[in-house]
Amino acid sequence: MSSPVSYALHDTVGVITIDNPPVNALSQAVRAGIVDALEQAASDSSEAVVIACAGRTFIAGADITEFGRPPQEPFLPFLLDQLEQHPKLTVAAIHGTALGGGLETALACNYRMALSSAKVGLPEVKLGLLPGAGGTQRLPRVAGAQAAITMIGSGDPVSASKALAWSVIDRVVNDDLLTEAISWAKELVASGAPQRKACDETFTLSDDDRQLIETTRQALNKKTRGEFAPQRALDCIVAAAELDFKAGLKRERELFIECMSNPQAAAMQHMFFAEREAAKVDGLDRNTPKVTIQKVGIIGAGTMGGGIAMCFAQAGMHVTLLDRDEDAVAQGIARIEKNYAISVKRGRLTDDQVSAIMGNITPATDYQALADADLVIEAVFENLAIKQDVFRTLDGICKDGAILATNTSYQDVNAIAAVTQRPEWVLGMHFFSPANVMRLLEVVRGEKSNDTVIATAMAVAKTIGKTPVLAGVCYGFIGNRMLQPYFRETSLCLIEGATPAQIDGAMERWGMAMGPLAVGDLAGLDIGYKAREQLSDAEKGNPASYLVADRLVEAGRLGQKSGAGYYRYDPETRARLDDPDVMAIVEATSAELGITRRAISDEEIVDRLTLALANEGARILEEGIAQRASDIDVVYIYGYGFPRFKGGPMHNAEARGIAEVVARINEFAETLSAENWQPSQLLLDLAASGGKLRDVKAH
Ligand code: 3H9
Q: Is 675 a catalytic residue?
């Protein structure tokens, strides 16, 4: 097999070229190839060495697919030591993104040049790791405390110009990177420039730097609550100041191994691949023609429709925002303007940018305005008959080949498509509120949706910055369907003995962005109440799972919007406060239903809620509603505040062990409710066979 690394002499400069598509990750073959090339360069006539990459980017880091397998020599820290101690002057030539082990490689060179379009970063914390090949020791020595704390703590890449200002790199060029790097290497040699080595630099922390570390620690504690790696990464920077280079590397290695052995690392790496996989539709030809989307119609100028309009307008598409009368549209436009005013105030957008975006939105009240739209998204009231009316109208007006999407959360996409003469051009595009912020988009394939419609929806989702996940038609699709058993268990825990603060506290300490009852208060308890009003008693199920919510609504407690729901909300700070009135309602309802309240442990709460999700997720997978288990994880992480460091409900179950999960579900079936806790057939099969959820493919 030919090596992904080649070496060639360009006059007096030896050029090492890495060509390992797609992103030049540092696989074992690449590491071995670089070691060989360095040996060759050490003994030939070259006076300097340039390290460059073919393809779209400089090295994007270690090969993440190798993590979790037995490590193979040569190891990256060894390789980078060889590079740093190389007898010839070394220059890294960076284009695209130099990330993780890629930037660490560049930092082990004597000099660094980058294209002006390049970005550099140490994103390891996003994978549950810290830079483990000297990055935490070399970056502070080369670029100082602020750059190191910011880049290593956040994991966010910085532009070439920022990197230049911080001295992470030494030179920026606009084009001809390789030619420029070679001639710069020659110049450096000719001028007798020293072979600068990061390991020889000293690094100290001033009082201000130590203060910055403290404030960054606190900020990260909030932003990456529950994550193991970010604080350890900062520990490494402190070690860089307090220890010599060799001892600092040793400390980095110890903490790197601690991170790598923590289950969070596997969960976050799982998510890295899961979100990329989610964009792929099994069985869909890569060359499926797509509709070019330039004009988008949005029906319904409410919060949801307005948020969706913002997404498309920001991406430069022309949006017609339609509602039934002038007042309704004007209100919708005013709401969008208010949102953008906040963005301007926070410095996220300029007035000019907002004007340009608003210029992309045209208000309308006449459906004829949608006649030439390429894509129409309906976001009207959640009622099948109303939605069907909208689609009948669209069918009569929209041009051939237009894609007609419903943003329904629960209605039957097939029943909506069926009222048109073109059901193959209809699908669901389920946005999450607030639509301009939330990254998830469920692309719901109706039984007749054609491939072009699906391929276009998946692609346009990316254009507007969303993470699309394909779902099939069922009540609630993937995400909201799983919420039903999740909320059922929440309500049952409450009525059987827990308090709102205990349930939400347990789930938030476990990692959820927000506990389920606080979510209910945020969304509005009246929504579920109104939905239940349309159901028969049999359809509503066990009163224990909704009666408290009904009583709260009947007492005028609709959630945050009325100042009280499961909690009371401080009118000024919006802080949620425990409310004895709620517990009085809960206790009275328990007594009325003949339930003897008992102490419920946090562990039981977490198990009931997370396993309810995993069990329903397995059914969804079994029925082919989701393509793969990891898609369900993406839905929960991007749409429902599930902690990324747990890898989503399916990965969490897999990491725990499917056999153990089934055993716990069976225990709940015996002690709580046989009806609610039937393990899904898929989980039973996997527990029996020792198979993995990640290998299950939907049919
Ligand atoms: C590290 O370096 C640890 C060291 O400190 C210490 C070691 C001792 N490995 O994202 P894309 C695949 S940790 C393997 O769609 P883009 C990706 O799965 C690493 N595969 O492209 C996808 O595959 P597929 C630190 C990787 O242009 C394909 O490449 N580095 C890796 O939108 C295209 O990816 C990082 O965390 C990898 N490292 O974005 C950087 N990276 O086509 C991670 C990508 O089969 N990577 N793939 O679905 C990225 O952030 C983006 O991929 C990048 C390109 C910005 C580079």
A: no
Catalytic residue among 39, 66, 104, 277: 104
> How large is the average pLDDT for residues 93-106?
98
Strands (E), 496-588: 568-569, 576-577
Confidence of residue 699 (pLDDT cuts 50, 70, 90): low
Atom of ligand 1 nearest to the CA of 126: 36
Distance 96 CA to ligand 1 centre (A): 12
**CATH architecture designation of domain 5-261:** Alpha-Beta Complex (3.90)
Taking the CA of residue 441 as centre, how many other CA atoms within 13 Å lie in the half-sphere pointing to its CB? 30
Catalytic residue among 124, 180, 442, 616: 124
Query: How many Å lie between the centroid of ligand 1 and the Cα of residue 692?
Result: 24
Domain with CATH 1.10.1040.50 in the chain: 602-695
Helix residue ranges per DSSP H, 21-127: 28-43, 76-84, 101-107
Which fold, 295-471? Rossmann fold (3.40.50)
% residues pLDDT > 90 (the chain): 96
Is 667 one of the catalytic residues? no
Predicted confidence at residue 96, as pLDDT, reads: 98
Please determine, for residue 46, whether its predicted confidence score (pLDDT) is greater than 70: yes
Where do runs of H (alpha helix) occur along 262-325? 263-278, 303-314
Using one digit for the tens of pLDDT, what is the confidence trace for 653-694? Answer: 999 999 999 999 999 999 999 999 999 999 999 999 999 999
Measured in angstroms, how far is the CA atom of residue 54 from the centroid of ligand 1? Answer: 16
Contact indicator for 50, 178 with CB cutoff of 8 Å: yes
Taking domain 602-695, whether its CATH number is 2.70.70.10 is answered by: no
- Residue with the smallest CA separation from ligand 1 atom 10 is 276
